[in-house]
Each structure stands twice: as structure tokens, then as C-alpha cells.
Amino acid sequence: MDTLLLPCDGTPNALLAVRHACDAFRRGDVRMVHLLNVQAPFSSYVARHVDRELRADYHREQAEEALAEARRLLDAAGVPCRAHSEVGDKAQCIADAALRLRCNRIVVATARKSALVRAVENSLTSQLLELCPVPVEVIGGAPAGALERVGIPAGVGAGAALLLLSAS
Predict the structure, then answer these.
(1) Could you say which residues of the chain have pLDDT below 50?
(2) Which of 24, 78, 97, 155 could form a disulfide with 29 if both were Cys (CB 3.0 to 4.6 A apart)?
(3) Signal peptide location in the record (predicted)?
């Protein structure tokens, strides 16, 4: 039986990974789940002008809000879980937490995007696959929106066209 790390930001895709973990627990494949929410740090400008305790309170409130639905789903399924929150680079915090918490694997869900979009963007999933010392299980989520499917390739095409025009 595995110990899972579930990075969760409260999005529908993240909750899909939580439901997947609940199913794995019902099958007897999982004994423990660690929920992790990673908050981006404030800019140095904000950090200079806002008290450390206020920043910590803000990050804690945001993490609790992001994890609330995931905790409800895990509790309803009877899955033993612990919630954690960190501030920093998402991929690095997740990789470090997987080691520190002795997780056997990380489960993430991601939107279904085109191969071109995946090649162009540096997604969290791609970063995790590169950084993590433990296996990363990727659950295919909902298809990406029309803007994500078309907008980035169109932007890349427009950028390439401008480069070609400027080179001539």
C-alpha cells in the first residue's frame, strides 16, 4: 500500500486527482494521503512592506481554502490524510515534500492540451516529471479550453512570422 502526495490548489483538475486517490484507497492500494498546497511567495517589494505574520496568515488562509474541498472528499471516503502548506516554487516544494514525507508516488491531474502547447509551455506536470525522485502519476483531466488549444499555437505562429519578417 502506497503513501500518496496530492498537490492540490482546489481546481477541478486537482479534485479529479483527489477522487482518483479515493478510488485507489477503496481498492486497497493506498494507506495514507498527504495533501499539499503550495503558495507563490510575495514579491520582494511586497515582502518589504507587509509584516511577516500578515503574509503567513494570508498564505495559511489561501491554503486552507484551496484544500477544503479535497479534505471533505477524502474525509467522506474515510481516507487517512494530512494537510500541508508551503510557500515557494511549486515544483521544487512538491519534489522536496515527496522525499520529506516518504511518499511512494505523486498524483497530479492535468488538463488535456495539444502536443504543441505542451512542447511550448513549461507546465508544472513537465517540471515534476523532470524533478521528482518518486514516480509521478498523471491523471488526464478535462480538455483544455479553446483559447488554450488555439491561442498559444496561434501566438507561437505569429511570433515565428514576426521573426521571419524581421529577418528579411
Answers:
(1) 151
(2) 24
(3) none
**pLDDT tens track for 112-149:** 665 555 555 667 788 888 888 899 988 887 666 655 55
Measured between alpha carbons, how far is 40 from 45 in angstroms, rounded to an integer? 14
Alpha-carbon gap, residue 140 to 29, rounded angstroms = 20
Q: Cβ distance 48 to 41 under 8 Å?
A: no
The torsion angle over the Cα atoms of residues 114, 117, 119 and 120, rounded to 10 degrees, is 170
Here the cell at position 72 is 471533505
Q: How far apart are CA 94 and CA 72, in angstroms?
A: 22
The three-class DSSP label of residue 17 is helix
10's grid cell: 482546489
